[in-house]
Specification:
heterodimer, A: Rossmann fold, six-stranded mixed sheet, four-stranded antiparallel sheet, B: alpha+beta, six-stranded mixed β-barrel, 56% helix, elongated
Chain lengths: 230, 411
């Protein structure tokens, strides 16, 4: 059964202007991602992979081109509607976790939901479920500084899952972890993907990329390779 | 709503995790709000003192003081200036003025009071025999001296309640003797306990006949002041004008500039006192205004620092879907938590300060009611929150305008 297209990028360009110098980060990218895919975006630094992820993740807006998400063209890239899409459709996992130090694991996971519109009870329930999925059901009341790096990243993954997003973005999710914890985290992503979650991951590590089903390579703002993994 | 509960909880956690920084940040607000509370409390206390004094003395009383004085300023005698122009003859003429019901003359001095083995230094007053009627002051024991005794320079004395307690703590002093500056007096009565008015404390005085005080104790011919009662309250102003006219004539004064006396009603004396407390209140109001502005700027400053320190947090919150107004509200609420906490500490501090003032004033034997008006507390809360919003809005707007990508990358 062929899956629906979740993301369609057509001729997406991004140019940064700093003073008199213009820098092209993305040069007319065409890309389609289907529901349920696990895609790794690879490339050396400056290749435009972060820019691509920021645009895909509604953190940044393209200079030109069209972005169709869930069959609908993303027209108005104004701040409030982008925030709303990020809140309801997208989950992020960052290299350095970005957990709020003064909050417990549960509160951190719950954070996206407080900007939404569901009841308090439901928020706590969803946050607890999300922590159980990543195996942290017994660490809910711990503060980040009481958790190991791997555990912190699992809290961050739970936070990305909590709003049941259409797509999860991971930016070098193992970059700050030792190899054992990194492996565990990648197994979690693999399992999440098996359960039907769409995942887009940016990495420069080919071992990490090998967990993905498709690998896209970027260089100088252009896609130089786009292949299924094995 | 829940998100704001979390914000408040986090802000409080943040405050408690750095108590000294929090305290220093809030200091301006604490002092400002403390001053506001003190203003209100001291105002209420002064009012209670004034109303109780009015009740006690009555509004039909006029005082005649020697020496010209500014209508609202304190009398010359308050500065220790001795003016000898007011005499007993003046008082007797004043008694003849139509509308005057009662005239009492006063002199006063200080001296050593000795009874048996006990000795204190205290104030004595020479008064005319109608003192008790003038002051509405009754006797606890014995009797007051008569006009006969006053005319005959009798060496008799009536003790204020406080003096009695000091010199004769256990026994009834009537019939005993007391020495004032080595002159022996027979005690004929003790006055009831009265408490202080604003002008003096009758409990800590010993009363002797006017003539005795003038001739035997002080060796003077003039009076310190004269009090008179009008026949009715409505006549007070009329009587005042007549007494002024009489004294102007008797003292042969051609030019009003050269007046050597002043006639004051009780309300003027109260205005003098109100002037003093108004001065104190104005001073506190100035402190309040300055501290609150400085405190508010401190809040802006600390909130700008907080926004900078937490740029990545702001970036993250935006990445997971916080809209600009969420971020703005978060930082305004944090500023509000700061200023309201400062306000609460200020209310506590101001209450403590006002209580201390009340203790001191009461220790001076005045009827000062300590109270912190509810309106003062509400006003303080309002001011604290107003400052939180006013001085928190700029940093909050700055935070709300941050771009999520740059903020996340901020080191």
């Amino acid at each position: 059964m062929p899956s629906k297209n979740l993301i369609e990028l057509k001729k997406i360009c991004k140019t940064y202007h700093t003073g008199k110098i213009s820098l092209t980060a993305l040069n007319c990218i065409n890309l389609t991602i289907k529901e349920g895919e696990f895609v790794a975006i690879m490339g050396p630094s400056g290749s435009g992979k972060s820019t691509l992820m920021n645009i895909l993740g509604f953190l940044d807006v393209p200079s030109h081109g069209s972005y169709v998400f869930e069959g609908k063209k993303v027209k108005s890239f104004d701040e409030v509607s982008l925030a709303d899409i990020r809140n309801k459709k997208v989950g992020f996992v960052f290299q350095s976790f970005y957990l709020l130090a003064r909050m417990t694991a549960l509160e951190n996971v719950r954070l996206p939901l407080i900007y939404g519109d569901i009841s308090d009870k439901e928020q706590v329930q969803k946050a607890e479920n999300a922590l159980k999925i990543t195996g942290l059901g017994d660490r809910m009341e711990h503060n980040p500084n009481e958790l190991s790096g791997g555990q912190q990243q699992r809290v961050a993954i739970s936070r990305a899952l909590v709003n049941e997003p259409k797509i999860i973005f991971a930016d070098e999710p193992t970059g700050n972890l030792d190899s054992k914890s990194g492996k565990e985290i990648m197994e979690i992503f693999k399992k999440l993907n098996r359960d039907g979650n769409t995942i887009i991951m940016v990495t420069h590590d080919s071992k990490v990329a090998s967990y993905a089903k498709r690998i896209i390579k970027l260089k100088d703002g252009e896609i130089i390779s786009n292949k299924l993994n094995k | 709503m829940e998100q704001y509960y979390l914000v408040i909880k986090l802000a409080l956690k943040g405050l408690l995790s750095n108590k000294i920084r929090a305290f220093l940040t809030m200091l301006g607000i604490i002092i400002g709000v403390g001053s506001v509370i003190s203003i209100m409390s001291i105002g209420a206390g002064a009012e209670s003192l004034i109303t109780s004094s009015i009740k006690e003395i009555g509004t039909d009383v006029l005082s005649v003081l020697p020496g010209k004085s500014d209508e609202k300023g304190p009398p010359a005698s308050a500065f220790g200036i001795v003016i000898t122009t007011l005499t007993y003859d003046d008082a007797q003429e004043i008694a003849k003025v139509p509308g005057v019901r009662l005239v009492t003359s006063y002199v006063s001095g200080t001296g050593d009071l000795v009874a048996g083995s006990r000795s204190i230094s205290g104030n004595f007053r020479g008064v005319t025999a109608n003192y008790t009627e003038m002051e509405n002051h009754n006797l606890e024991e014995g009797r007051f001296f008569t006009e006969q005794e006053e005319r005959s320079t009798a060496k008799v004395a009536v003790l204020g309640y406080g003096i009695k307690k000091d010199l004769f703590p256990l026994s009834n002093p009537v019939g005993e003797r007391v020495k004032i500056n080595n002159v022996s007096f027979r005690i004929i009565g003790v006055l009831e306990e009265k408490g202080s008015s604003m002008v003096s404390n009758p409990d800590t005085q010993i009363l002797v006949p006017l003539s005795t005080a003038q001739k035997v104790l002080l060796g003077i011919k003039h009076l310190n002041y004269v009090r008179l009662k009008a026949e009715s309250e409505e006549q007070v102003e009329e009587v005042k004008a007549r007494v002024q006219g009489l004294l102007t004539y008797r003292h042969d004064i051609k030019n009003p500039e050269d007046e050597d006396f002043s006639v004051r009603s009780l309300s003027q004396a109260l205005e003098t006192f109100e002037g003093v407390t108004a001065g104190l209140r104005f001073f506190l109001a100035a402190i309040a205004a300055i501290s609150l502005i400085v405190g508010g700027i401190g809040i802006t400053n600390i909130m700008l620092m907080t926004v900078k320190e937490r740029t990545r947090e702001i970036g993250l919150r935006k990445a997971i879907g916080a809209k600009p107004f969420h971020i703005k509200n978060q930082f305004i609420i944090e500023a509000l938590v700061l200023t309201t906490s400062g306000g609460i500490l200020g209310i506590i501090g101001g209450t403590a300060f006002s209580f201390l003032v009340a203790l001191i004033v009461r220790w001076l034997d005045y009827n000062w009611e300590f109270s912190v008006p509810l309106s003062g507390i509400l006003l303080s809360f309002f001011i604290s929150m107003f400052i939180g919003v006013t001085f928190g809005i700029y940093p909050a707007k700055k935070a709300a305008a941050l771009n999520p990508i740059d903020s996340l990358r901020y080191e």
